[in-house]
């Protein structure tokens, strides 16, 4: 009996060219609401002390101000291809979302 192919054991790409904070590239959980998400790049901006002074909606240093998530097939920093099993790339590959949590109500665009 044939077993279905297993996902790659690699679930996170650690690129030495990433900025020090705010960027991750992974194959696990995704804000793009897919059953089996492809690789996605997440870029987020976290609140600093000066952000707290300027925006009374923010409560603590480190709170996420906004987050952008994009489905990707290669690391945009080093160009490395990211492994997917045959058939795992969705027909509508390329979804993205931007989540702005800087105001009283968070917005998803």
Please indicate the count of domains.
1
Oligomer: single chain
Radius of gyration based on Cα positions: 17 Å
Shape: elongated
Main sheet attributes: strand count, strand direction, barrel closure:
5 strands, antiparallel
Overall pLDDT: 83
Give the uncertain stretches in residue-range form: 2-7
Counting H and I runs of at least 4 residues, what is the number of helices? Answer: 1
Count of distinct strands: 5
CA(first)-CA(last) distance:
45 Å
Spatial sequence of strands, sheet with the most strands: 1-2-3-4-5
Helical content stands at under 10%
Going by helix content, strand content and strand pairing, the class is: mainly beta
What is the structure about, briefly put?
This protein is mostly beta strands. Helices cover 6% and strands 24% of the residues.
């Amino acid at each position: 009996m044939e077993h279905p192919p297993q996902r790659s054991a690699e679930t996170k790409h650690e690129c030495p060219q990433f900025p020090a904070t705010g960027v991750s590239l992974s194959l696990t959980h995704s804000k793009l609401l897919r059953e089996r998400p492809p690789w996605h790049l997440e870029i987020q901006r976290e609140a600093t002390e000066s952000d707290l002074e300027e925006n009374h909606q923010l409560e603590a240093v480190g709170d996420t101000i906004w987050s952008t998530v994009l489905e990707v097939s290669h690391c945009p920093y080093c160009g490395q291809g990211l492994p997917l099993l045959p058939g795992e790339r969705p027909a509508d590959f390329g979804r993205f979302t931007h989540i702005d949590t800087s105001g009283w109500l968070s917005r998803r665009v």
